[in-house]
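Chain A, query sequence.
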Amino acid sequence: MSSRHAGHMHNITFARRFKLVLLALLLAALAACGRDNIKEGTSEPTVSPQQYDLVVRADKDGQFDLDGATLDTQTLRDHIRYRNDAGSPVRTILLKRGEKQKVTNQQVAGLAGIARDLKVEAYVLDNDERLKIIQIADDGKK
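Chain A, predicted structure.
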């Protein structure tokens, strides 16, 4: 075998190895995406409240369960505004897994918007039972 052919064989082996490494990385990334924990927009809290002013549970279709009532994001926002106006302010809110529904990124995003707009600290007990604080990205819009 000439040195030219040996170099060609080396390139094929390298290409195969490279493809296998890429495939392994892709599979690892997909496995990480399939996990139950909520990562987007959350972090470990440095201090967490002993109790929360409002506790909601995950419900179907990105909605929330509040004492047995299913609320969409806007209705939950309105409820918090009502409580604030009625003298029973909500300063902290906790989102937990529902009886039949896991916490979704859609619910975390909805709660983040509420927290930003109403100046509330929002926490989530993720699907792996870890407490996280929902990070608020204030984009400057009012």
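Residues 42-134 form one domain. The beta strands are 42-43, 54-58, 64-66, 69-71, 92-96, 121-125, 131-134.
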